[in-house]
Amino acid sequence: xxxxxxxxxxxxxxxxxxxxxxxxxxxxxxxxxxxxxxxxxxxxxxxxxxxxxxxxxxxxxxxxxxxxxxxxxxxxxxxxxxxxxxxxxxxxxxxxxxxxxxxxxxxxxxxxxxxxxxxxxxxxxxxxxxxxxxxxxxxxxxxxxxxxxxxxxxxxxxxxxxxxxxxxxxxxxxxxxxxxxxxxxxxxxxxxxxxxxxxxxxxxxxxxxxxxxxxxxxxxxxxxxxxxxxxxxxxxxxxxxxxxxxxxxxxxxxxxxxxxxxxxxxxxxxxxxxxxxxxxxxxxxxxxxxxxxxxxxxxxxxxxxxxxxxxxxxxxxxxxxxxxxxxxxxxxxxxxxxxxxxxxxxxxxxxxxxxxxxxxxxxxxxxxxxxxxxxxxxxxxxxxxxxxxxxxxxxxxxxxxxxxxxxxxxxxxxxxx
Length: 417
Prior knowledge:
By secondary structure, the chain is α+β, with helices and mostly antiparallel strands. It folds into 4 domains: 38-58 and 343-416, Beta Barrel (conserved putative lor/sdh protein from methanococcus maripaludis s2 fold); 61-67 and 265-338, Elongation Factor Tu (Ef-tu), domain 3 (Beta Barrel); 73-104 and 232-253, CATH 2.40.50.100; 108-229. It is 36% helix and 34% strand. The strands form 4 sheets. The protein has a 6-stranded mixed sheet with strand order 1-22-18-17-21-2, with no helix packed on it. The protein has a 6-stranded antiparallel beta barrel with strand order 4-11-14-13-12-15. A 4-stranded antiparallel sheet has the order 3-16-20-19, with no helix packed on it. A hairpin with a 5-residue loop joins strand 17 and strand 18 (371-376). Helix 2 (107-167) runs antiparallel to helix 3. The chain is elongated, with a radius of gyration of 52 Å.
């Protein structure tokens, strides 16, 4: 007779083992799917640069490139122009103030100077004739006054004699009246002549003042005309080194054309170009450092030019303390310009990542060193070594600082060996 065989139930420990295996499988599958959904870029570790975030003093400096220039320079320009007849000194020579440098010739200028001299001389002669005429008139009027005064003196003597004779009835009354009338007439003539003399003196003084002014202007014009001719001999306005004289004998130089340059070589300055990003932060008296021949030197900003050309503006600096030896005009220096005092900040070394992310995010390496995950950050100031981190990173964290040019769309980097 058949007997029903009862199926044995699984022990609880077996069900627990099955559940554990199933959970493990599900977790593994979930991890595989999650990893597949994260955009990951495989990158050999030796092709990356990894730097640690550190807390330290942030020096607010920016690198600038400067050029050595003389502190004072004087340019030589052609005042009237002409053909170069002779070059009297060599380029690079040291010259003294007033020393002849070039001799120019200008035929048209010579003719113009001669015509001006003739015209001015004629005008001066005319003014001299007018002045002489006024003096002659003055002397003539004075002579007339002398004549009238003498005539009055004679008539007064005759009148006194005739009065005595008339009282003694020795002469007629008519004779006496004639002399008296003549005396009265001459006195009126004298008064009129003196009034005319006063008027002439006043007119003469005004006219002579005008003539003196005109003569002064004509003499200035004559001197200017002669000096324009003298300008054909170009002289050194100051003492210094003739660093530039680009002329050749027979070459024609027009008015205002640059002839050369004289530099005062006792003192130099540094002319540097600064990025326009710092135009509001660069001010006079800021310091700069540079290294030359293994020795460090200091410089100070003395002038900031506000004009911006091709994304940069210009500053002038002078050496502080001992200046380097054997400086040469045009020599280039690499300086660090200090924009502010050091501040304790969270620092991240500079790298190619800044150009790709603008400092908005970075790849942070995990503790295992096998992966780097994208993280948003915020940065502040930067110098030639570090960028200031204001948010998103902690001291000791490691960041990939090399270029992200091929990883800008990725969320994670797998570092391979």
